[in-house]
Amino acid sequence: MAYQTFDPGLENRPIRDIAYEQLKHAIITGQIPAGSRIVETVYADQLHISRTPLREALRKLERDGLVEYVLHRGVVVRAFTIDDIDEIFTIRNAMMMLILPSVVENVTDEALARLREILKEMDVAQEKADADALAVLNREFHGSIEHLSDKLRILRVIDSQEEYIKRFSALAIASVVRRSNAHQEHHQMVALLENRDLEGLKKLMHHHLEESKETCLAAVREKHYS
Amino acid sequence: MAYQTFDPGLENRPIRDIAYEQLKHAIITGQIPAGSRIVETVYADQLHISRTPLREALRKLERDGLVEYVLHRGVVVRAFTIDDIDEIFTIRNAMMMLILPSVVENVTDEALARLREILKEMDVAQEKADADALAVLNREFHGSIEHLSDKLRILRVIDSQEEYIKRFSALAIASVVRRSNAHQEHHQMVALLENRDLEGLKKLMHHHLEESKETCLAAVREKHYS
DNA sequence: GTACAATAAATTGTATACAACCAAGGATGA
DNA sequence: TCATCCTTGGTTGTATACAATTTATTGTAC
What we know:
The structure is a homodimer. Chain A has helices spanning 15-28, 40-46, 51-64, 82-106, 109-127, 131-146, 152-160, 162-173, 176-194, 198-222; strands at 37-38, 67-70, 74-77. Helix content of chain A is 71%, strand content 4%. Chain A is elongated. The first copy, chain A, folds into 2 domains: 8-77, Arc Repressor Mutant, subunit A (Orthogonal Bundle), CATH 1.10.10.10; 82-225, Four Helix Bundle (Hemerythrin (Met), subunit A) (Up-down Bundle), CATH 1.20.120. By secondary structure, chain A is mainly alpha-helical. Residues 1-10 of chain A have low confidence and may be disordered. Chain A binds chain B through residues 12-14, 16, 52, 55-57, 59-60, 62-65, 71, 83-84, 87-88, 90-91, 94-95, 97-98, 151-154, 156-157, and chain B through 12-14, 16, 52, 55-57, 59-60, 62-65, 71, 83-84, 87-88, 90-91, 94-95, 97-98, 151-154, 156-157. Chain A binds a DNA duplex through helix 3.
């Protein structure tokens, strides 16, 4: 068959990466339920690609811990429990504490201006109670802060959990109360960053992520997701 | 060509995993220097395998962050600095603090007996100043403690750094002074575990890993590794 | 009907073939 | 001499073919 000539705009990535992201998304959202066996030919046909790039995508998922490989039996989707969510947020929180010193150290006026810009957009979204927009802006906001750090390996750990965070922090933002508190906290964060107040920022960020976790866990428990 | 029919004993893993580990080892030990481009055909020939399993190994290394992928240009070995070592130990220390509560909670008499057994072997190795044996036992000792925890995702983060730790903590163990201190600390750890003294253990473990890091960094700086 | 052996089907593991792309160098023309 | 186009060699991207292994199925004996 012909190559996948989708290529929207400038993107010309290998289709193994497309497959990787699609599978990752499908697993995290539960479209492919935990315990499912991923038979290569089935998914290759479904994605209209050959087994080769699909297998490379599976190897990546394997390193991510999303699927488990069994000798001569291929991969199975790993289970995903409330404890996982707890751990993911806990890891993220701990990593954040590790990078904050370098974040405060490296913050520039340009970065602060950018954060204030995002905050303004968040004000609007908050006003309109647009949870979807807030979820996107929220990731942008936190991402901008995190990537002020030069601790590349720690950032890599955070980024490896990024996809989960995206999904689950959206759940937290769905809560009206949490949304309002989080919004205030975001404003406070920028103020603390402005003053280079490391201790204050650490305390606030820790609280912020802890609250997000609790709200998210409550939401998940309610939906009896596990 | 015929399949790689090496298969020593019971091991019958796919050769992509063999390739993965060999490449990983070669990169971490510096046999393949940072910045090198890994041309698939070259290494496939060298390992006497085809490109397919090699590519799957490369995808895993990509997720590990050991190599970097450039569109249509393949992978290059990422640089590996003193800062990386610092971060790796820092991450490990932070993760350890997160799992220790569950370690203390789950510790059993059998586990303690096992730890004392390892300690005894370490006594012998310490007596004989056998640094190589100590390095192995050291990993076994710490691994046994870590895996008392049921925080699987956090353990996964620790394990993902395992290979580095193996290499670098061996450097720390090469120091006679550090070796002696570490040995004492290991004995103290078991005592604290016995008493389920979480706070004491946290304090000691934090100190222990911090000292290992410093010794290792000093050794690396001396060898002007970076 | 159950147990076991033999066989067939499904699936993964590996190798190879070919297409697409990039980079470098030479040919052509001004 | 310089710029531009084209070609070509090298390398990655993908598809496919085939081998090996596991799992399911069938058949036969008891």
